[in-house]
Q: What sequence folds into this?
């Protein structure tokens, strides 16, 4: 039998945190993040549930969203405003966060608060956060000599609040006259009128201070964080100049990317492109079984699934030449390309299509794709596939070798998708395996298949041989 050491991902990466990599500023990490965490279904009539927060936290999520509105009897509630989604108590969510915040990971949890509440209920929110979370809530102010965000290691087992703050000169509650995001696709339920900000809530916001994006020509404070909707993000990344500006911004400050308002079915935007620009918080609808969540799990499986992955140096150092558009402009003496050989040898116990219990004999084949920097994901040579094996899901044998010339391996994912060839209809997806190229072990390895919900399909697997050759 194959043991953990023969898997494509090293068991050390799965079971241990690289402590030496956890001492950089928060802006230097990709952070596992959820959008509208409370929802279990779609954005219009879906159910809101405390359990959705628990599920996300157990998956290693380190940034959860709380859409807060005035509730009855002075108690704030969470739901998707101006929709028919059900409502849950803010207090109940905070209780769950206290219990489960650090069950999967000891590194900081960020509460992304969308505040639609009156002053009175904002004060109530602040009271719940302080009294329920206690010492877990990080409430210290920012020192005058600080020049960068603290590290995940420094903030171990601490909860940070992301919200707006009063101006430094304010002595009491004050007006909020700027939206955190000026994206014209921003969800109508989150467009705010001029609203007062509670001093009590403002006082527990420190390193994740939500502000209106002032533009790339204005140097914001290192603790200022702006949110960018899907269409705004695409627009920024479509222009090489602003795309490079975004990378520089993300070396020092945190950006939060969220799906467009048209995604009422809780589908997700493509997650890799913002990662390629160094965006830290790319929020996904965790309840949706899709490729984006599949790649998100591939990103955050390593480092013991702690929800923080250190970005490569060219996404941390603004002095290094790099572009998230093609070509990347990287110095190849420092960041060489990679010649990756993937030999698909065989499969074992390939499952039948979902819902088919017996009788069906599959005709499996494997699609192999590289996701990552546009230099790689847009290269047609990085989209390949095996031949079809007729009537054999038990132990199909391919013995086919594929070579990929990966320009930016630090940002690349290998995606193996097993499908069933159909002579009459659409080919069915049987199972997948995705992994960051930098996390892959060489040699003969086992890749255990999962479905897009993350459910393991063991013993279904692919037997592969991996070799890497660096090309300076």
A:
């Amino acid at each position: 039998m194959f043991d953990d050491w023969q898997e494509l991902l090293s068991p050390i990466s799965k079971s241990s945190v690289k402590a030496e990599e956890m001492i950089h500023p928060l802006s230097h990490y990709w952070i596992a993040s959820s959008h509208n965490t409370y929802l279990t279904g779609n954005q219009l009539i879906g159910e809101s549930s405390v359990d959705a927060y628990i599920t996300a936290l157990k998956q290693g999520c380190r940034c959860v969203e709380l859409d807060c509105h005035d509730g009855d009897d002075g108690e704030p509630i969470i739901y998707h405003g101006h929709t028919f989604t059900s409502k849950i108590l803010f207090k109940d969510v905070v209780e769950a966060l206290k219990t489960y915040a650090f069950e999967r990971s000891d590194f900081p949890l960020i509460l992304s608060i969308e505040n639609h509440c009156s002053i009175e209920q904002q004060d109530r929110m602040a009271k719940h956060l302080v009294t329920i979370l206690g010492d877990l809530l990080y409430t210290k102010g920012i020192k005058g000599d600080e020049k960068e965000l603290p590290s995940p290691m420094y903030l171990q087992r601490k909860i940070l609040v992301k919200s707006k703050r009063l101006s430094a000169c304010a002595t009491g509650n004050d007006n909020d006259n700027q939206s955190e995001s000026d994206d014209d696709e921003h969800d109508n339920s989150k467009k705010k009128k001029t609203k007062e900000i509670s001093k009590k809530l403002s006082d527990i916001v420190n390193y994740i201070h939500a502000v209106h994006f002032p533009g790339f020509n204005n140097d914001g404070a290192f603790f200022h964080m702006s949110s960018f909707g899907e269409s705004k993000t695409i627009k920024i990344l479509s222009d090489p100049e602003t795309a490079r500006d975004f990378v520089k911004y993300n070396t020092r400050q945190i950006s939060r990317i969220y799906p467009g308002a048209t995604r009422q079915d809780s589908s997700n935007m493509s997650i890799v492109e913002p990662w390629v620009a160094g965006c830290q918080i790319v929020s996904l609808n965790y309840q949706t079984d899709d490729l984006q969540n599949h790649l998100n799990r591939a990103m955050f499986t390593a480092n013991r699934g702690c929800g923080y992955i250190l970005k490569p140096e060219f996404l941390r150092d603004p002095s290094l030449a790099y572009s998230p558009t093609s070509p990347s402009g990287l110095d190849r003496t420092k960041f060489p390309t990679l010649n990756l050989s993937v030999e698909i040898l065989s499969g074992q116990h390939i499952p039948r299509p979902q819902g088919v219990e017996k009788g069906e004999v599959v005709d499996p084949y494997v699609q192999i794709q590289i996701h990552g920097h546009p230099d790689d994901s847009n290269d047609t040579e990085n989209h390949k596939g095996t031949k079809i094996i007729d009537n054999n899901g038990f132990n199909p044998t391919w013995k086919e070798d594929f070579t990929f010339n990966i320009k930016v391996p630090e940002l690349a994912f290998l995606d193996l998708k097993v499908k069933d060839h159909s002579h009459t209809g659409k080919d069915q997806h049987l199972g997948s395996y995705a992994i960051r190229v930098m996390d892959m072990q060489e040699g003969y390895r086992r890749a255990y298949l999962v479905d897009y919900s993350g459910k393991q399909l063991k013993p279904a697997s692919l037997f592969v041989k991996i070799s890497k050759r660096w090309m300076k």
About this structure: The CA atoms of residues 366 and 418 lie 5 Å apart. The radius of gyration is 23 Å. The longest helix spans residues 119-133.
